[in-house]
Structure formats: C-alpha cells, structure tokens
C-alpha cells in the first residue's frame, strides 16, 4: 500500500461544457507538464479549482504507484469507490460515485505514443459522465456555416477529414474526429469539437482545438461516397442505430475493458440520447462525389 500525503495543487485548468459539467484539470507534482500540454491542445485557460471534479495526471514509478488507498489520500476522499482500467501507457482511474478521473502514466518519461494515447483515451471518461445529462460523443467531422453547426458522422476511412478540408469559406472546419453533442440549459443541442489525437501520434502538426467553444447543432449529414452529389432526408426513427454506432466508435476504446453489464448500460444510454437528438435535429444522407461541390447541396438544406 502506498502512503501519500494530500497534495496542494498549485495550478490547473478548467473545461466547461454546455450541459453544466466542468472539470478542473491538474497534475501531481512534476506531472503538471502533461496538464500544460493537454490544456494547450484544447485551448483551456488556468482557473481556480472551485468545487469542480478533478482530472489529474500522475507519473508512477517502480516505488511510487497508485492504489485505491493512495488515491483516497491525495484527494482527501475516503468514500468514493475507485475503478482502474489498464492500458499500455498505464492506468485510468475513475470514481464510481464521482466524476473524478486520474490518468496514471506507468513511466516517469512516457513515450510520445503513450503520452498522447493517455490523453485521447482518458477523455472518454468525460464523455461517459456526460451521457447522464443527455450528451453523445460522435465520430465524425464538424464544421460551422454562418453560425450553424453541421456534423458529418462517418466510419474511419470514409472521407470525413477530406470532406472537412474541401469546405470553402465561409465554412469553417472545426474538427474531423471526435465531437460531443450536448444539450444546453434550454434543451437545445450544441457541439463541442475535440482534438484529433492521431495528428500528434502521426506527427501531422501541432494543431489546437477550442474545445469549450460550442456551436448550435443545425443538421447532421451521414457521409456516403457516390458519383454524384445528393442530399436525402432521413427518417429520425430509422437512424438512432447509426448514431449509436458512431458513438460506439468513440467509446469502444474504454468500454471494451468494462463488464458486459456496464457496456450494456452505457450503450443503452447512448441509444436513448441519440433518439432524443434525432427528434430535435434534422438528419440527412449526404452523397459525395470526388470533384463536385457537395457543400452547395448542404447550404440549400441549411437555408
């Protein structure tokens, strides 16, 4: 058992989401350098901890590893039951009765892949907590057109990144991988763009994403390759399974390590949230050719 004194966190960053969920992101001792990097990529600003749930980066070593008693010590929390999920980079701990998350690197100097995979995977625990408020993570591109948010869900390799790159001004491509649809306090849906972590894993540039900037969701277009550009309106009662499948592409890297009961509960919640979103937001199939101006078809629908 590791005995650790409560730690005075001197620095941290806030992430505030449209549904009222917030986290204070910090690091234990010298692990704050990973917090700084994480916050820089997502354009987060320093803030005081207030009473937000904590999202903590932690470096372990051969003689300095976390267990449940150590976590309760450093968080001054003796009541929460903690669950651990093991990955190549280390562990992600989350509170069963709280929204706290701890990202534990198994090495004092994690490799580039371990460093960014931990950040990518740990965000799924934020997505999972937000499911309870009606949110839904989606695998797809996201763009803004004259203040309107447009989602382009698609499996990997379907062309969502290419679709976003082809959009001309005044379109603004905001994300091409993971997004979080969230109901705001007025029961309207907004989308938060999240990082494309593969850009860092594959050295495609030091991009940044303004994660806290939420755009109202105006329409959803499922991508489909075609010889001609075309938009087809879809029935909301026939598409929740597609939305849930898109959500699973985001959550799978976390829930495959959970029990069958936990997986079933999470995906059941995702399906219900998808159904609610599709009742409120128009959804279409977007057939895209290699050379056509597909965005003009989308603009006609948006008005």
**Number of separate structural domains:** 2
What gyration radius follows from the Cα positions, in whole Å?
20 Å
* Succession of helices and strands: EEHEEHEEEHEEHEEEHEEHHEH
Main beta sheet: strand number and arrangement?
7 strands, mixed
CATH class of the largest domain: Alpha Beta
Strand content: 25-35%
The CATH topology annotation of the largest domain reads as Phosphoenolpyruvate Carboxykinase, domain 3
Query: Looking across the biggest beta sheet, what order are the strands in?
Result: 3-1-2-4-7-6-5
- The number of helical segments is 8
Number of strands: 15
Q: What is the end-to-end distance?
A: 62 Å
Low-confidence segments, given as residue ranges, are: 1-5
Overall CATH architecture of the largest domain: Alpha-Beta Complex
Outline type: globular
Short description:
The chain has helices at 32-41, 68-75, 112-131, 160-166, 198-201, 240-255, 260-280, 294-302, and strands at residues 13-16, 22-27, 45-46, 54-59, 82-87, 90-95, 101-105, 136-145, 148-153, 172-175, 178-183, 189-193, 215-225, 230-233, 283-288.
């Amino acid at each position: 058992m590791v005995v650790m004194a409560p730690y005075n966190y001197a620095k941290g960053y806030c992430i505030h989401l449209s549904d009222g969920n917030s986290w204070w992101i910090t690091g234990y001792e010298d692990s704050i350098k990973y917090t700084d990097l994480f916050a820089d990529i997502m354009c987060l600003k320093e803030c005081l901890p207030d009473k937000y749930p904590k999202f903590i980066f932690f470096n372990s070593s051969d003689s300095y590893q976390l267990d449940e008693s150590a976590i309760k010590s450093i968080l001054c929390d003796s009541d929460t039951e903690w669950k651990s999920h093991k990955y190549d980079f280390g562990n992600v701990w989350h509170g069963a009765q709280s929204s706290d998350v701890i990202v534990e690197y198994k090495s004092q100097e994690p490799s580039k892949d371990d460093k960014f995979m931990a950040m990518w995977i740990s965000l799924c625990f934020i997505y999972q907590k937000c499911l309870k408020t009606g949110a839904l993570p989606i695998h797809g591109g996201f763009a803004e057109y004259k203040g309107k948010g447009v989602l382009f869900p698609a499996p990997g390799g379907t062309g969502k990144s290419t679709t976003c790159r082809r959009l001309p001004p005044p379109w603004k491509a905001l994300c091409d991988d993971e997004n979080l649809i969230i109901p705001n306090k007025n029961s309207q849906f907004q989308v938060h763009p999240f990082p494309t972590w593969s850009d860092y894993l594959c050295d495609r540039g030091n991009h940044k994403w303004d994660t806290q900037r939420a755009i109202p969701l105006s329409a959803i277009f499922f991508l489909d390759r075609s010889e001609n550009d075309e938009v087809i309106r879809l029935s909301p009662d026939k598409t929740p399974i597609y939305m849930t499948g898109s959500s699973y592409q985001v959550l799978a890297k976390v829930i495959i390590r959970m029990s069958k009961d936990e997986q079933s509960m999470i995906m059941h919640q995702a399906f219900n949230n998808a159904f609610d979103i599709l009742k409120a937001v128009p959804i279409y199939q977007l057939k895209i050719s290699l050379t056509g101006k597909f965005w003009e078809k989308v603009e006609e629908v948006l008005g």
